Amino acid sequence: MGIGRFRRSPRLALTFVFALAVLAWQPRPSPARAEDAAKPPAATETEAKPPPGVPSDSSTATVELAARPVAFVSASAEWTNAFKSVRKEIDKVQAALKKAGLVPAGHPFALFLATDDKGFQFQAMVPVAEKPEGKDLENGVKIGESPAGKAIKFLHRGAYDDIDSTYDLITAFLDEKGLESQNRFIEEYLTDTAEPDDANLEADIYVFIK
Q1: Which domain holds residue 66?
Q2: In angstroms, rounded to a whole number, what is the distance separating the alpha carbons of residues 105 and 22?
Q3: Checking CA distances to 186, which of 13, 103, 152, 155 falls within 20 to 30 Å?
Q4: 21 found inside a domain
Q5: What kind and span of H or E run contains 170?
Q6: DSSP code for 143
Q7: Sheet holding 69-78, edge to edge
Q8: d(CA 185, CA 114)
Q9: Does 27 fall in a domain?
């Protein structure tokens, strides 16, 4: 069974349970992407040429993601303001970390939990080097772990307004390869922008597979 875009897709209703446990990322050494601190350390690459239009080229690979400490907050939003809503919650997490004297250890990301035609539920996460003392920060920000497991990684380049097209191509790609998803999706935001029409946006998309 292929995946569909979690956003208002009749082929996919994301009602999976979040199992606090996600991505094991390491800082990327490239000076051109020094801010990119989220590359899985034990990525088992599988040669899998994406269809034209999936902006991942040779980087499409199967990776094994390990759990990592994160600060996170749970929220919901409507599709009409999806990206700005996600970024707002990420900002909340980052502000709570700063006030607590904690330094982020990688790019922020969002785990999408459930959707319907009007909106979605998600968790905005920011990785930290280690779990701080205590369980919660201010403004409802909590400390936990990101999910772990086998995933396919893709890269979206371009405005967030156009990301549905990337998901459609990912769906077709997984269908062609006979891969079945767990209906768990993560978007890791590699560029610091809050504008959904920013053509410079880059985001890694992790699709957990069975």
Answers
A1: 36-143+157-209
A2: 14
A3: 103
A4: no
A5: helix 163-177
A6: E
A7: 61-65, 149-157, 202-209, 181-189, 109-115, 119-127, 69-78, 142-145
A8: 10
A9: no
To the nearest whole percent, how much of the chain has pLDDT over 70? 71
CATH code for the domain in which residue 95 is found: 3.20.80.10
Q: Return mean pLDDT, the chain.
A: 77
**154 exposed, middle or buried (CB, 10 Å; 0-12, 13-18, 19+)?**
buried
Q: How far is CA 74 from CA 4, 5, 130, in A?
A: 23, 20, 20
Structural domains in the chain (count):
1
Model confidence pTM above 0.85: no
With H, G, I as helix, E, B as strand and everything else as coil, classify residue 193: coil
Mean pLDDT on 44-51: 44
Within a domain: 60: yes
Pick the residue with more confidence: 129 or 115?
129
